[in-house]
UniProtKB/TrEMBL annotation:
Upper classification of the organism: Bacteria, Thermotogati, Deinococcota, Deinococci, Thermales
Record GO terms (molecular function): 4 iron, 4 sulfur cluster binding; metal ion binding; oxidoreductase activity
Keyword Cytoplasm annotated: no
InterPro entries documented for this protein: FAD/NAD-bd_sf, HdrA-like
Domain of life: Bacteria
UniProt KW keywords: 4Fe-4S, Iron, Iron-sulfur, Metal-binding, Oxidoreductase
Protein name stated in the entry: Dihydrolipoyl dehydrogenase
Cited Pfam families: FAD_oxidored
Amino acid sequence: METISLPIHTEPRHWEVLVVGGGTAGAMAAISAARAGARTLVVEALGALGGTGTNAQVTPLMRNVSGGVNLNQGLTNQLKRRLREREDGAIDPGGNDNWFNPEGMKYVLEQMLLEAGGEVLYHTHFVAPELEGQRVRAIVVHNKNGLVRLQAHTFIDATGDADLAVRAGAPFQAGDETGLHQALSLRFLLGGVDTERLSAFLRRWGQPQGSPQFMHFWMVWDKGSSLEPLFRQGVAEGLLWERDGDYFQGFSVPGMPGVISFNCPRLAAELNDGAEAWTLSRAQVDGRAAIERLIRFLQKYFEGCERSFLASYAPMVGVRETRRIVGEYLLSLEDILYCRTFPDAICRNHYPVDIHTPRGQKLLHERSGNLPYFAPDAYHEIPYRSLIPLGLSNVLVPGRCASATFEAQSAIRVQQNCHSMGEAAGLAAAWCAQEGLEVRGVDGVKLRGALRALGAYL
Ligand SMILES: Cc1cc2nc3c(=O)[nH]c(=O)nc-3n(C[C@H](O)[C@H](O)[C@H](O)COP(=O)(O)OP(=O)(O)OC[C@H]3O[C@@H](n4cnc5c(N)ncnc54)[C@H](O)[C@@H]3O)c2cc1C
């Protein structure tokens, strides 16, 4: 690899907490750090907060309930309340805890950050860390101003891919034991849907809906979906490709009447590594072509969709799993299935192991059995130590790239858990800056107590 030298402009300001990646975990981390009184900056590659939730249009917060109690509270509750006040959020009577409008979510997160005194720098990519031993002294980013050096006391890597931690030398794992990642998807919004008629049609086809405002329908080959014959016809007619039926799912979007958010298409199996630039680019192209096929199929076969139109492609490819740091604690499948708890817990989870593998691979979706985890009031915990990458003294890594095995990550990766991990990382990072601590110096039991005092269910 060649090295080149380019001018780097040093930003004169110095932050206490710098969050790289303003996504699901990062936005909450920044809000949490700023509320704790730390001078906080969040650097984000795109032009809005919320990451996979907003820019990849993953519009339902997946239900994470145990014994009738939602396990993620604290900042997540405040976020939900703000969304519902604006009619950008809603509770589905039959299932998911919160469905949201991705555009509303962008606004609410941004307002919560600014109200807390935090700052954001959009359209800015992390490039490289500058190290002093195990300490990240600064990061170099790239944006319209060129290469810029940003300095802070403590860094939170919420890039979803552990970009900062890995480039700073932290050990990591990626994919399953063969290196295969979970499948990528490109989501899209379909507008102009007559949801009354679509709802009646789905009822006739064996998928009755709660109401035309709360629709959820699906088809996956060989999983017993009543819609499968329609998809078979679509393939026979050449409107669809076989793989377009690997995963198909639609949801209503609060505050967007006549719009359905699709959790598909799943992308070509060979497009597997969401942390690889060429793959990501090809995934966007592959996804757009598949969306074109799906829309033509929906217009022809689904009543109520005849006059529908593409409202938007998700700006970000939906990436479920890439690099995961190896941290002070590596959360495992056993921890989940045997409901392990920890004194330094920062989050509780009851979402199951949920692995979307490219077609032809085993799909492990553990929802029932005799193990302790399958009791309706069961949960396991995630320790603060799972956010601390080995070998670095002032970096925390919340979100889907926290320290967990492939199977364990598939359970903890859902959005509300990313919120809770982000909230904990933000508070811990603020303490580090204010008390001159390294991340390992934070008392995890005290952190848990402080999160509880802020409303966490811990
Ligand atoms: C298709 C799909 C469907 C899903 N369905 C659900 C669901 O129904 N419910 C649910 O709760 N969860 C669901 N999930 C899981 C969940 O959405 C994600 O695991 C979670 O949002 C990840 O959060 P994160 O903060 O780790 O990463 P992200 O939210 O992706 O945040 C990472 C942020 O970092 C930014 N970034 C990345 N690299 C850089 C860089 N180098 N420089 C600057 N910024 C950078 C990105 O732009 C992004 O904003 C789904 C995921 C996918 C992909």
